[in-house]
Amino acid sequence: MTFPPIRPELAGIAPYGAPQLDVPVQLNVNENPYGPSAAAIADIATSVAEAAVTLNRYPDREFTELRTGLAAYLSRDTSTPVLPEQIWAANGSNEVMLQLLQAFGGPGRTALSFAPTYSMYPEYARDTHTTWVAGTREQDFSLDLDTARALIEEVRPSVVLLPSPNNPTGTALDPAVIDALCEVIGESGILVVDEAYGEFRRQGVPSALDALPRNRNLVVTRTMSKAFAGAGLRLGYLAADPAICDAIRVVRLPYHLSATTQAVALAALRHADELLGNVASLREERDATVTWLRDQGFTVADTDANYALFGMFEDRHAVWQGLLDRGVLIRETGPDGWLRVSIGTPAEMRSFRHALLDVVKTSA
Ligand code: PMP
């Protein structure tokens, strides 16, 4: 036995995470490139100072005020208002989903998604001793309803994880699929629609939140890390039937949301319009980037998110490295031959375009 005496299935595994490199143009982890205004920063600072007065006490374990604020925020995006008792939150939506697997997965149970998809999903399964099954997506990365239905009937998963838009492809889920999959999963499982990038979806497309009143087994997760421009805040949340929130309470660590996290998240919600103010221009920049890439002859997956998956490259690592050498960091992820670029400011995207043309020209 080698030291440390780690679980054998974890031995030698590299921790998950994209390289964090200090380069001028960072387009690798789908952050919002725009930081908060001076007014938002001042409100956040005041709120933290107020929370600090009682830091000798544990925070509100039920984060009641924050749940109320998040419910009001989500209610803007759905036809039926979301209630505070339908909200759960944690330190990033990664933690929310780990808690979902802790409560609804486990030994003898199965979690299912469709590849290529978010690479943390199998890690939640591994860490909770849940069996992991990955079906496949179509050539264009969409989900075929009949294929999905057949696999669910065969595997009978306790948890189905479906991001919309999907990461790393950007593919949106057809809203009609949600009701159909909730029905086939039935009450022996839950469907988690991961809307980490939901606010970037095309206008006119409903959020999965609209399907909540019809489906007790539906969970919709969101995060403040992406459109909300709060990746450093670490606040993710979900909306679901209150019984699902109660089940998570059993597995959550006590006081998991610090007093400062709650204070900062509430301040961020007060500045929601401003923090989300660049979503429309990021969507435009995304569509322009896709058009430009296609005009250059690249293949690009249709995207409803703040990133684009493009290729195909015989040696994608060489292209990634070439961009990095020119000060542009993107992500080497997705199926072989593809690369993913996050959408930054117009100036950052200009740097990306110039660097990419230069790399391709140099290696031709
Ligand atoms: N879901 C998807 C699809 C993601 O891409 C990410 C982050 N990359 C997350 C969830 C988790 O984000 P966070 O923990 O910052 O909320």
List keywords for this structure.
single chain, 364 residues, alpha/beta, Aspartate Aminotransferase, domain 1, Aspartate Aminotransferase, domain 2, seven-stranded mixed beta sheet, three-stranded antiparallel beta sheet, 38% helix, binds 4'-deoxy-4'-aminopyridoxal-5'-phosphate, HisP_aminotrans
What would you say this structure looks like, in words?
This protein has a 7-stranded mixed sheet with strand order 2-8-7-6-5-3-4, with helices on both faces. A 3-stranded antiparallel sheet has the order 9-10-12, with helices on one face. Helix 3 packs across helix 7. The model has no long low-confidence stretch (mean pLDDT 97). The longest helix is centred in the last third of the chain and has 18 residues, at 346-363. It has 364 residues and is of the alpha/beta class. It folds into 2 domains: 18-34 and 278-363, Aspartate Aminotransferase, domain 1; 38-274, Type I PLP-dependent aspartate aminotransferase-like (Major domain) (Aspartate Aminotransferase, domain 2, 3-Layer(aba) Sandwich), CATH 3.40.640.10. It has helices at 38-52, 64-75, 93-104, 121-127, 145-155, 175-185, 242-251, 259-270, 272-275, 279-295, 316-325, 346-363; strands spanning 25-26, 87-90, 110-115, 131-136, 159-163, 190-194, 218-223, 236-239, 299-300, 307-311, 328-329, 339-342. Helix content is 38%, strand content 14%. It is globular, with a radius of gyration of 21 Å.
